[in-house]
Request: fold
Amino acid sequence: MPKIIQLEQHVADLIAAGEVVERPSSVVKELIENSIDSGAGIITVEISSGGMTYIRITDNGCGIAPGDAKTAFFRHATSKLHNAEGLEAIDTLGFRGEALAAIAAVSRVELMTREVNSAEGISLTLEAGEVIDMSPVGCPEGTTIIVRDLFFNTPARLKFMKSDRAEASSIASVVLRAALSRPDVSIRFIRDGKTEYHTPGDSRIDSCVYSLLGREIEAGFLSAESSDENIAVEGYVSSPVSARGNRSYQFFFVNGRVIRSILLQTALEQAYKNTLPSGRFPSCVLFITTKTSNVDVNVHPAKTEVKFISDKQVFDGVYYAALGALNKGQTINDKGQIGDRLKRQESMAGSQWLSEGGSSGKQKVESGSSRGMWKVESRKLGDGESNNGFRTMQADEFRGSYVSEPQKAFNFPLSACEASEASRIIGEALNVYIIIEKDNSVWFIDKHAAHERILFDSLKSGNYTPMSESLLTPVICRLGHEDAVVLLENAGFLESLGFSVESFGEDSVAVRHIPADIDIGDTESVLSDLCPQLRRSGVAETAGRDSIYKTIACKAAIKAGKSSEKRELETLVDRVMSGEISQCPHGRPVAFELKKNVLDKGFGRV
Ligand code: ADP
Ligand code: MG
Reply:
């Protein structure tokens, strides 16, 4: 065994710094927390080049005494915790005494600070953790910290930084969360000279939400609250009609701390269980307050996770707050909106275009005047096409197809046609399964799964360039700043899929083209589904690209529960029966064989 040595202090410091300061946004997070802890009412955050070259945070808080300025940069030096018992009752955001030491160890830092009511301030300059200058200075009350050239002395970490744009967007999201967490503090965020956020600091949650998330989000929020002797929950949850395609607008604060927690997320979403379809998520800004002794904040170096003494109390607090808001919202504030939505659905249903089997044309479905009957017009059929002209169907049946549920009976019979030499299409059942007779078997093909596989394979092999459909008016997708940035960074790749995305304000993109196979109404949800995949592994890796192709294939494939044209079904049958495909991209089978002898057995023939 090689000899064991104790690491030199500065190496140990660099290792410790790596835990706290992962990227520029971790610096910003720690410094804003310090400013909030200092009692500041006004905080300004300025960055350039994604925070890599320059971060400056100014506050009007209590300031640091000249005699304490150096100590503040020692490891485990803090004014917020004095002994082990103190850990039970942390009421500040910081307490570990590590942030300033960690930041200083990997950058060039300047501190200027003046205590309230003292005549003079102090300025301190550090490089890689070493103090290189300390002198008295005239400055406003409060503290300014400038951090330059982050990771200049740790090239290994520098290599892992993303583009300035991505780092800036991560900082923006940290500032946004911090600003939301404290409506009583006015926070300004200036990025490359331009103000991005500025909250009024008037202690009103609504004005804080409005200035950070915009009018549209704020308008979709219902106020939520619940309280008992253990826990109080206050804030906003979104009305069901304002649900989004992802969770990026779920904000939880526990005793003023920004927290990511599956428990809280689940409690919120449980309240929407019967109101939202899968793939749609509620948004929220919820402040959870409980006794400091009920929460353990010392479980994560970046303090973004906590442990609760009673998960159930917290779960119930959030769940009932959200449920109460939904119930109240529906009967009082939201009634109009829900009524409107139903009306909209009805009117959409009344002019839905359906294609009917046996015809390659589209038919307009009109609602009959008496309940229960829908009339289907069809265009005149050409030679060789078979159709019985008009067809009536039950209203319930039609609605079934509108909400994508399989219908109960055999739908339009297809004329028996030759799909391939030895197989014959008999029809389509439940708007999902194509039925085929081949040799001594009856086959069922899941049309969505089969089409999905075909699209996936061709996307993957590069043989498929989706036809791009140009939209008369662009679709504006408000996905949040982080997602908007990810999409813009991958605009070239998205173009190869048929989407053209352009920047539209800070947290939105304008979409001018979409792949022709994708429903315009699905634009936002598809793009929002792609964001985590683009972020996670990016398009450079095969695994990442595959999961993106799966999403596109799934959305572009013909839908189960919707009727399809005969030609589409024939093509699918050809590809499946030739043995070319057998499983959908998710691994489910696309075809199922029922052998004649099994049928015969069932009927007691053998
Ligand atoms: P912690 O926040 O965990 O105490 P830090 O390393 O972040 O540790 O800060 C060390 C100490 O420096 C703090 O405890 C506080 O006393 C002082 N300090 C840091 N930033 C500020 C600030 N903006 N205003 C006043 N004091 C500050
Ligand atoms: Mg701190």
Confidence is low (pLDDT under 50) at residues 330-420. The two ends are 76 Å apart (CA to CA). The CA atoms of residues 407 and 430 lie 5 Å apart.
